[in-house]
Amino acid sequence: MLKNIDPIVGPGKYKSHMHSFYGSDAVTKDLPTTEELQKGCPSGENPNDLSVYWAPTLYHVKGDNYTEVNPFMFSTYYENMDKAEIPFPRDFHAVAGNASGKSQADVNENYTGITWWCDAGPEDRSNRPRAALPQVTCSAHIQAILRFPDCVDTADIRRYSYSAANGGKCPAGSKRMPQLRFSMRYDVRKHIPEGWSGPPPLKLACGEIGEGYCLHGDFINGWYDDAQQNLLKATDRRNWMRIDGAHGQGKAGSSCKPKDRDPTGGTSDYLTSVKMMTAN
């Protein structure tokens, strides 16, 4: 789904920049609970994961035309399982990255891992800021990654942080969770068949043309409890483990078709979303 909402940062409003949503379709402008997400239909392959994930939409810009660049692949990975002490709490939600980022100084790659690159070359990150978009034509996909906080205050799940910011340990009162990572691959060759040299004619909905500094992501936990217990078994010796559960095998796919649960609210058009952001 594509819409100008952000139920974590701006709940109840249609005033966000454009986001692309993945996972449970039980998401609207209002912040949902884990239980509400589990009543939805998942767009992903794992029927045990009714979480919702979103990131700013990427556009190809040509004059006054903004064309959405759909990810060739949007993947979620859960890392450092051997260090996790607890599963994600029910109703847990988090934001990673800086939606207002305008330079490399606004991106803490040591924590968030944010970087853009050509996944099949050429490699140009030594010649530009690592969180900027590639300055050369990619032979295949543009890829970006983003890591989420992995510590949560068990007394107040709205308080979360990165263990990397605390010497690899969680602060007092917090517990270590699995670390979520977004991996997004975009095939821009059909949008820019002539290629590019320098800043590409691409922009995230939150930023400027040719920049990637404002990359960020949002997550609301919708995992079923039994599957989360299986998730915690995926230690570093069992990388790429399929997470099965009572609702099916981890790659069983969905038996339903996701839909927009608020079809008359908000917009999926970029220019309209810009107007709505500034409207009274």
UniProtKB/TrEMBL annotation:
It holds the Pfam family DUF1996. InterPro entries: DUF1996 (IPR018535). Signal peptide: none annotated. Residues 244-272 are annotated as: Disordered. It comes from the Eukaryota. PANTHER family: DUF1996 DOMAIN-CONTAINING PROTEIN-RELATED (PTHR43662:SF12), PTHR43662. This is DUF1996 domain-containing protein. It comes from Cercophora scortea. The lineage of its organism: Eukaryota, Fungi, Dikarya, Ascomycota, Pezizomycotina.
